[in-house]
Structure formats: structure tokens, C-alpha cells
Amino acid sequence: DAKTTQPTSMDCAEGRAANLPCNHSTISGNEYVYWYRQIHSQGPQYIIHGLKNNETNEMASLIITEDRKSSTLILPHATLRDTAVYYCIAGGASNYKLTFGKGTLLTVNP
Amino acid sequence: DVKVTQSSRYLVKRTGEKVFLECVQDMDHENMFWYRQDPGLGLRLIYFSYDVKMKEKGDIPEGYSVSREKKERFSLILESASTNQTSMYLCATQGDSGGSYNEQFFGPGTRLTVL
Predict the structure, then answer these.
(1) Burial A30-61 (b: 16+ CB within 10 A, else e)
(2) Is B84 helix (H, G, I), strand (E, B) or coil?
């Protein structure tokens, strides 16, 4: 699986968009980008995944650059409950073995 | 909603004890996983199972074994607990749709302390 690099921490004001970057410069052509998050004292929760097209669901949007070397997870209107560690993972299409790195601690401030 | 339950939220054991951590899911998922999570190291895969009685080693299987006798239940066994196995243990499940990605659903975790 390709290695991913994320900032250690980020802050965001409540109600504003949170943009979380992820670098995956060694990603291969058939590897997807997955995002999970972990709220304190809970297990990780799936957010979204994509291959090369931008994706949107009820939780977030995923923007993948054309060269696929980086991506951005967007939470359009962050709330205090979005404070969590966000993990960006690169892996195969039916990847059952997720390699979680250290992630980005997003703190949403009132 | 998928429900993944783990037998205990907190557990304290002594060095050398045999420890069983149980995970039960109610969604008929084929795949089940055991991870441990430590500060600064993220989540690391210990073992996973893709069917009853089937298992594969993850990244850090040493000191652990697993058992899957029924589809809904996946047990992690520490044969002889050691202090370096003090950690948060997370169970996850995943359906298998043959090629496309299915999300993993995680349990709440068991915080194990080995004294």
C-alpha cells in the first residue's frame, strides 16, 4: 500500500469548511484513497473513498488531484462533533487490510 | 445499523494470564479484524478472518492467536499476557462483495491493562 502523509493537527472554526490534506505521491493506478475518522474513545468510522473522480456523500467531499498524488477531504460546515482524528489511507479496491497512520487531529472551535 | 460489540470496555489482567477478547457482529459480515491502537503508532492489524475457521496474520501477530468458530464471533487470545500488550484493542467487521470496497465497521474498543 502507498504511504500517506498528513499534517499532525489542524484547527477549524465551527460552521466553516474544514479542508484536510493528504499526500500519497507513490499511489499506484489501482489504489483507492480512503478516509476514516476516530472520535475520542470510539472506534474509527468510515467517511468516504475514491479512485480518481471527486466524490461526495452526506458526510463529506473528497477531491483528488488529477495526478492522484494528493487529495483533500472537505467537511463543508464543521461542527464541534467533527472534532476527531482523520485518517487518510491508500489501498486496493477490495482492500481488507487498512494501514492506519497517525492521522490529523482536527479540532473544531466554537 | 451494524452492531459490533466487544465483551469489555476495560479489562485488567496480570502478567502470564490467558486473556480472551470477544467480538460479536450482527450483520452477517464475512470479514472480521482485530487491531491494537497505541499512542504514536496508530492502528495496527493483528489478525483477520475472512470466513469461519479461516484466519490470516496481520502486521503484528506475535503473542496473539484468534478463533472464529461461528460467523458472528471472532475472539482474540493472549496466551500469556505481557505488559507490552497493554493497549486498546479494536474489532472490526466488513462485508465481502467480491471486488468492490465495503467499509469496515468498528466496535467501541477494549482497553486492556496488563500488570
Answers:
(1) ebbbbbbbbeeeebbbbbbbbeeeebeeeebb
(2) helix
Chain B nearest-CA residue for A31: B101
Q: Which of residues 60-89 of B touch A (CB under 8 A)?
A: none
Alpha-carbon distance A50 to nearest alpha carbon in chain B (angstroms): 10
Torsion of CA A91, A96, A97, A100, to 10 degrees: 70
Dist. CA B78–CA B89, nearest whole Å? 12
Tell me: the pLDDT tens digits for A21-37? Answer: 999 998 888 889 999 99
> Grid coordinates standing for B32?
472480521
Sign of the Cα torsion A42, B105, B41, A100 reads negative
Phi, psi of B83 (to 5 degrees): -60, -30
Q: Residues with Cβ < 8 Å from B71, sequence gap 6 or more?
A: B28, B30, B51, B52
Share of chain B above pLDDT 90, in %: 80
